Amino acid sequence: MSVAGAVVLSFLVGVPALRADDRPANRKATFTATATAGLRLEGTSDALSAAWEVDTLVVTLPTASFHTGIELRDKHLREHIEADKYPTAALRVPLTAIRLPAPGASASGTAQAPLSFHGQVKPVSFTWQASRSDGFDVSGALELDFTAFGVPVPTYLGISVKPPAEVSVHFHVPEPPSASAGAPR
User: Fold this and answer.
1) Half-sphere CA count of 4, side-chain side, radius 13 A
2) Which residues pair with 126 in a beta bridge?
3) Other C-beta atoms within 10 Å of 184: how many?
4) Which residues have a Cβ under 8 Å from the Cβ of 74 and sit 6 or more positions away?
């Protein structure tokens, strides 16, 4: 299996795909990991979706959607994280964990939410930034110790990926259903 194997913590698992904002240019997930010998691994996906389930923002990602630029590495990655068995990852962020900005404003912070990945659910800490403009433009990041989710350290030809992997997301999401017009939460 490839060096990228466990990297893709894909940030989220176990929730069916949700309706995504229909502006694909505004949806992106990336991961960066370091391997032995100083090798830096990167992958991207535009299959990210974000939607509100009542007062919870659910960010989902198909685990097989990351592309590293090397087809064989992508195949090894999907096999290593068992993307067929665990096809999605999901971060479920309660609205109470974040502070939504007022219209035309921005907000940022650190929060904790349950991450479903590789058949397990564990709390993770993440940073976020949001600006309010016809909904919310959101960026977030977390460090994922994929071994905590039962994904072993991948090793290929003597090179191993070192946890944690850095995961970042960017997306647009509409106002939550419970938000009153123009009122920050």
Assistant:
1) 25
2) 111
3) 13
4) 4, 43, 66, 67, 68
Number of Cβ within a 10 Å radius of residue 132:
19
In this prediction the pTM is 0.82
Query: Is residue 123 within 8 Å of 102, Cβ to Cβ?
Result: no
Taking the C-alpha atoms of residue 37 and residue 49, their distance in angstroms, rounded to an integer, is 34
Q: What is the pLDDT of residue 5?
A: 30
Cα angle 125, 67, 111 (rounded to 5 degrees) comes to 10
Instruction: Give the model's pLDDT for residue 6.
Output: 28
pLDDT computed for residue 22 by the predictor: 42
Beta strands, E only, 69-135:
88-94, 106-117, 120-132
- Contacts within 8 Å (CB) and 24+ apart, 118-124: 118/13, 118/81, 118/82, 118/86, 118/89, 118/146, 118/149, 118/150, 118/151, 119/13, 119/14, 119/85, 119/86, 119/149, 119/150, 120/13, 120/149, 120/150, 121/14, 122/148, 122/149, 124/91
Q: Which positions of the chain have pLDDT values less than 50?
A: 1-24, 180-185
